[in-house]
Write a structure and sequence with these properties.
The protein is of the alpha+beta class. Strands 3, 4, 5, 6, 7 and 8 form a 6-stranded antiparallel beta sheet that branches. Strands 10-11-9-12 form a 4-stranded antiparallel beta sheet. A two-stranded antiparallel sheet has the order 1-2. The protein is elongated and about 85 Å long.
Amino acid sequence: MAKSSNQKAKLLQLYQLLLEKTDEDHPITVPQIIEELGKYDIQAERKSIYDDLESLRHFGLDIQSRKGKSAGWFVGERPFQLPELKLLMDAVQSSRFITQKKSDALIRKLEGLASVHQARQLQRQVYVSGRIKVMNESIYYNVDKLHTAIAGQKAITFKYFDYDIFRQKVFRRDGQRYNASPYGLIWNSENYYLVAFDHSNQDMRHYRVDKMTEISVTPLDREGQDQYPNFQLAQYGQKHFGMYSGQEITVTLRGRRDMAGVVWDRFGQDVILVPDGEDHFTVTLSVVMSPQFFGWLFGLDGGLVLTAPSAAAEAYQQKLKDALQASVENLR
């Protein structure tokens, strides 16, 4: 049989064909393989197909065959199995910090990791209707730059902004560049935050990644080790409710026993709960006192009560009084 000019691509086309069009529920027969290769002007005989399938198996592709009613050849194990791809697809679709444009691009790439038949199942996965997405398209590349700086323990500079009512960027510090040393990234309340040592204020702060722009990784070494020799990123995230800043204090909470899981979910399994009678416990925690912390307490409907220090308890009571007063005035 005469060979065409495309014959050298035979093995590559067969590899692509098996990955794209076969899975356990959709095997392909040798005659069908020969027909598909013919569409690319690639001639093949049955014996050569068997040899090629064996070569691909030795290469590492999990090629399996099945006899019977649905006989044929198909790819078994893949780098990502269908349930894993479904989880990744759901995460991309529901992530607020990924823009809609980037979400669509990532979803198309994820679909390419499955067969065309499995990709249809991925398209039927969870879609969050009306999902709010960030407007900053560069966040995808911001995260990459920040990871580079963190891995290399290098300082960065950047500009930081908010949006006004017309969706226009309003730069903080009058557009001056921030100088900071990144320590890690936290995904909190559906947003990405950079935790970094601020060179100007000489303390640890956090920034919304989607509000950062013009990020530059400098050749300067990271600062902050002297001020924070034992800095723990996880502890920083636990203390800052909703990533709001405020004064860090040690508080004591008294809670019902059925609220133990709530405390452990928020602060980790290492937190020690001290029994207080048959139905309650107390716990001492280090938190950043902020409106978000008070809101978290209020949302537990009395399940946890702030008991100490007295200044914090009084501040919480005053916040509740102010909120009630504002509500009453607005109803007039």
